[in-house]
From TrEMBL:
<dbReference type="Pfam" id="PF00005">
    <property type="entry name" value="ABC_tran"/>
</dbReference>
<keyword id="KW-0067">ATP-binding</keyword>
<dbReference type="GO" id="GO:0016887">
    <property type="term" value="F:ATP hydrolysis activity"/>
</dbReference>
<keyword id="KW-0547">Nucleotide-binding</keyword>
<feature type="domain" description="ABC transporter">
    <location>
        <begin position="28"/>
        <end position="77"/>
    </location>
</feature>
<dbReference type="GO" id="GO:0005524">
    <property type="term" value="F:ATP binding"/>
</dbReference>
<dbReference type="InterPro" id="IPR027417">
    <property type="entry name" value="P-loop_NTPase"/>
</dbReference>
<dbReference type="InterPro" id="IPR003439">
    <property type="entry name" value="ABC_transporter-like_ATP-bd"/>
</dbReference>
<protein>
    <submittedName>
        <fullName>ABC transporter family protein</fullName>
    </submittedName>
</protein>
Amino acid sequence: MNNSRPSETGPVLRVDEVDVVREGRALLRRISVTVQRGEHWAVLGPNGAGKSTLLRLLGAQWHPTRGTVEVLAQHHPDLATVLVTHHLEEIPGVATHALLLRQGDCCAAGPIDDVVTSAAVSHCFDHPLTVQRSSGRWSVRSGAQRAPTRV
């Protein structure tokens, strides 16, 4: 029986320069992300962005066309979490990082407060959106944020 544990300081998973091509169509292009112990990631993007494809790679259901995927904590799910959604409202308050995908490309990745911004999410979803965070909960509204009107 193998009782080896992942490094206490190393990443839980690493995706390095991954491409996924199926039937001649690029589903992911040059995606790189490293998830460290204790991080809680949200993967966001519109339908067809590549979220499910990335999840299939992380679950070893699919293999990349190019690049590498290393899942170092297969039997230790409490080390980190990855949530895949296209609804910002579903992001739990414990999320520390985010990855934005659009048509198989990474729009942004990193600490959640740096990544989940109105500008970045609007670009990712190709629609003007206003993103807000209040009491640890995320919300999004259609349309660009406007300056208050003085009466």
